[in-house]
Amino acid sequence: MSNILFLDKMQQAIKSYDSDEFIECVQTKEITTNASELMNDTLSVSLPFDGTIKDASYIAVNDTKEQEFSLYRILTAKDEANLLSFEAINFAVDELDNFIIKDIRPKNRSFSYVINQLLSDSGCDWVLGVCEPIKTVSSTFYYTSMREALKALQELGSEFTFSIEITGNKITKKIINCYNQIGKITNKRFEYGEDVLKIVHQQDRTNIVTALIGRGKGEEVGDGYGRRLEFSDVEWRKSNGKPLDKPKGQNWIEYPEMTKEYGIPSNGKMLPRKTVVVFDDVEDASELLQKTYDQLAYYCRPLVQFSTEILGSDSIGNTVSIHRGERNYHYQTRVFKVVTDHINGRVQASLGDNLSGNSINRQLSQVQINISDLDSNKMTWYDSTEIGKYQDDIMRGAGANGGSIYMVNGIEAGVSQSRETYEQVFMDGPKIQDSQYFMIQNNAGISFKQCKKGQWTTIQDVHNGASTTAWTLDGTFNASFIAAGILAGVLIQGVVVKSIGSNSFFQSVLSNGAFSIEQYKETNNVDYTKPDWQKDVHGGKVGEFIGTYDGNTKKANGSALINYPGYIFSINQDDGNGSSTPVFQVPSDSTFDKPKFKLFGDGTLQGDINIKGNFYVNGVKIDTNGGGNSGGGDAGWNGKYPPEVTSDRDKRYWQIWAMAIGAGFSKQAAAALLGNAQGESDANPTADESNGAPGFGYGVWQWTDSSGASSGRVYMINLMTRAGVTDNPDTITAQFKLLMWHAPNGQWIATSSYPYSWTQFMTLTDINTATQAFVANFERPLNGHPERSTWAQEWYNKFVNLEIPSGGGGYIAPIASPITVSSEFGWRTSPITGAQEFHNGIDLVNGNPNTPILASADGTVVSAADPGYFDWYGNWTVIKHADGMYTGYAHQSRVDVAVGQNVKQGQQIGLMGTTGPSTGEHCHFQFMDEFYPSSSAHFHNARDYIKF
Fewer CB within 10 Å: N-end or C-end of the chain? Predict the structure, then answer.
């Protein structure tokens, strides 16, 4: 039994049925014979009338116990005799045709990489599931649909299926699966002629071949290719397990049984029917013989299409074996079509050669038959006479069954004695006496005529009937024939164009270059001779879109949206049901002297914001005492640990301690941060309360979306975007910067028990007071946390007397001044692909495209122009330093050092260049604490070590 859901146009479930509640429910899946087309997948259902689903837009079918469904878009719906019938097609192919890829040009990239890039670039909400192909893709996808892109990938050797997951009453996941070949290779074997295997269609090919000469790649010579590879020296013996005997010295392979049946008779015996196949990419004789045999196995036999009912509904694409004992040959073939009746569970599978009407095999075979028929059926004089009659009937529309188009000559029209065509008549019936409406095309243009059915019986009646010209041959169009529809690319020159809104509440008017929304005013007749005739057209203005101009130059300089007093101007979001809610709004009490606006919903502003006036967050005034430098500062930590700090846990807490001291915290306030970090996450920047579930906390201080809409990590990253924090979000560095921005920008709210601003908190000298102030004013939990004061004291005792290592490790800039940073460390839009990426270094230029690259500190070269390292660095040098850090220098035009060489600070190690993926000469400079960083957390911002 299958589960079937009906969904509305927003893809929300309306009602669920079991298949036994239907009168008809037939699902048809067919693998197309042309690799450039995706799978055909249709559904036909009918059931007793149910008003709740009569306007449904989609049907989902699940015949498994899994969560995945096949989803179909309804094409036609009929309501006849208390019966609802629907015809539907797999919605994926249709939906993917509307997602446009702008410009993706992969080069030697994996299938999974390319498909994910295409999905991202097109804005598609589908995800990639299974992806089997391991071959690489080099292609261009430029302003094409996602559907066309998948068809192009399918032609490269893959096949696709589509499914969805439904949770509750809505679609939660849309999945594209990519296979080398749909289905699996099975051990199922059918004997030709057995009862369970029905022959649907069989056709002996007139061009059948019983022996093939295989030829491989040609030898390269001076200006092309010479003699091709053959397999004469390769021997096959059936006694050694080979499918056929092929002696040495023979340059063809033959099926003797097929020659005996289909060969060329000569002197009492049958000679093989031979042809040549060429494989330009094969360079091995044994491989050439195998490929030639594979072709022979197909071309030496008749085309046969089978059907069976013993395979399951999931057998689409499966490979089975067909064995024909009396002719001593067998071959593998696929199940190319499965028709599943979900009412009775019956499954009909089609396999073998697809000889259906749209099959390429069928078309090619039919061409051969037609040519043979044409050759054997010469046309007689009588035949040509009969054809002439048919031609005349078709041209005149005077056949036994009539015709809806009549070609009228000059004699019939009564305008000349010529038999040349004078006009063309289209009619709504099969013949004149059964027609009521006529369209005539002649040298005057196009006109329309109408009579009572049966009033006109001859073409002369039609020609002489009264007509109304719609379009003259000189291009003049009668506008009275425009009843409804779309005018595209039309230039209307005039003064006023008026459109009436629904229910006549408002009207839109295009007048004198301005577009206005006005109160509705009924207009019947307009006297255009009156100088103030426009008063009869215009209503009271509500809003207007106008062009603006410079009063001095008298030239256009822009455009403006005008809101009139007492009305609102709003940009709204549709809810899908005819209503909407505002996102941006100018309220009705906004005036010229005191303008107002409102913003609703979540949003992102990129760039600096200059607020002139007071700024409030949730009613709390944010001022300079509340702090709030964008991005939270870089906190001044140099990446160094005292020798006493050795464990990974202590290093996490030391980083927070050092960053807090560097940001101006008192040591007691810094300890308060540590005590709260221990209580929230044990200072773990990737701590996740509930594995990504919405409404739970994430990170060192457990950022949580109180609305429950987002996971803690997503909420935290959104805050970082607002704060301008570009570091890897899963690091203490990024989260400390966010803390420094988030607290003074709305999160820190002073309480009566701890009436301190964020700035005042940073200077507190009592550990307990500072710890509990952070709990009450920043965390704001339901219950208190006195234990955090104890933890804060413990960390204070551990770190208070330790020295923070000074300096940045003695590093210098890798190029000479003046230095410009052309791309910072952290998340950015890739200049190569246009996608979001983590930039793990800092890009430097100084105006000299061939400037020397210098060692930033003493060390040992551990990589120099190594092609085995990550290829996106181009010519790349890595130096290991005494403090355990590594520095990397990418895209060099020349590398001047070798692996194992010791270098001194400032020593030249190469020249700036633009090798590897690059948009111009620059030095990509990075710090790492691992030679092969296992994650982005092991990259460090160069600004933490060097002041640029």
Answer: N
Report whether the peptide linkage leading into residue 818 is cis, meaning its omega lies within 30 degrees of zero. Answer: yes
Q: Are 215 and 276 in contact (CB under 8 A)?
A: yes
Phi, psi of 850 (to 5 degrees): -120, 30
Q: Which amino acid is at 794?
A: E
Closest CA to 21 of 8, 6, 4: 4
Tokens 């019939």 sit on residue: 412
Q: Is the backbone of residue 241 left (phi > 0), alpha (psi -120 to 50) or beta?
A: left
The mean pLDDT value of the chain amounts to: 81
Q: And the tokens for 39?
A: 């799978």
Tokens of 459: 């073409």
HSE toward the beta carbon, residue 362, CA cutoff 13 A: 15
As to burial, measured by CB atoms within 10 angstroms (0-12 exposed, 13-18 middle, 19+ buried), residue 491 is exposed
- The pLDDT value recorded for residue 800 is 92
User: Smallest Cα–Cα separation from 628: which of 616, 639, 619?
Assistant: 616
Dihedrals φ, ψ of 776, to 5°?
Answer: -75, -40
Q: Contact at 8 Å (CB) between 406 and 396?
A: yes
CA–CA gap between residue 584 and residue 175 (Å, rounded): 35
HEC profile for 265-321?
EECCEEECCEEEEECCCCCCHHHHHHHHHHHHHHHCCCEEEEEECCCCCCCCCCEEE
pLDDT in tens, 258-313: 888 888 888 888 999 888 989 888 899 999 999 999 888 777 777 766 667 666 66
CA 663 to chain centre: 44
Nearest to 397 by CA among 387, 385, 408: 408
DSSP 41-71: EEEEEEEE--TTTTT--EEEEE-SSSSEEEE
DSSP helix/strand/coil, 888: strand
Q: Which amino acid appears at position 834 of this protein?
A: G
Q: What string of DSSP letters covers 696-735?
A: --BTTTTB--TTSSSBHHHHHHHHHHHHT--S-TTSHHHH
In whole angstroms, give the CA distance from residue 455 to residue 655.
98
- Which tokens sit at 389? 């009659």
Exposed / middle / buried, residue 287 (Cβ in 10 Å: 0-12, 13-18, 19+): middle
φ, ψ of residue 266 to 5 degrees: the values are -155, 115
Q: Which two tokens stand for residue 159?
A: 């096949």
Q: How far apart are CA 159 and CA 341, in angstroms?
A: 25
Neighbouring CB atoms inside 10 A of 262's CB total 19
CA distance 840 to 877: 15
Phi, psi of 136 (to 5 degrees): -100, 160
Q: Contact at 8 Å (CB) between 30 and 56?
A: no
Residue type, 828: R
Separation between Cα atoms, residue 40 and residue 159, nearest integer Å: 12
Assigned token pair, 339: 């028709």
User: In sequence order, what are the residues at sequence separation of 6 or more whose Cβ sits closer than 8 angstroms to the Cβ of residue 287?
Assistant: none
Strand 58-62 and strand 902-903: the pairing is unpaired
Distance between CA atoms of 577 and 55, rounded to whole angstroms? 14
Residues 870 and 878 sit within 8 Å (Cβ to Cβ): no
CA 382 – CA 830 distance, rounded (Å): 75
Q: Would you give the DSSP letter of residue 905?
A: T
Cα gap 788→665, rounded to integer Å: 18
**pLDDT tier for residue 561 given thresholds of 50, 70 and 90:** confident
- Classify residue 504 by its DSSP letter: G
Pairwise CA distance, residues 889 & 79, whole Å: 71
3-state secondary structure of 609: coil
pLDDT > 50? residue 843: yes
Could you say which DSSP state residue 486 is in?
-
Q: Distance (Å, rounded) from C-alpha 191 to C-alpha 321? A: 8
* β-pair partners for 160: 178
More confident residue, 187 or 356: 187
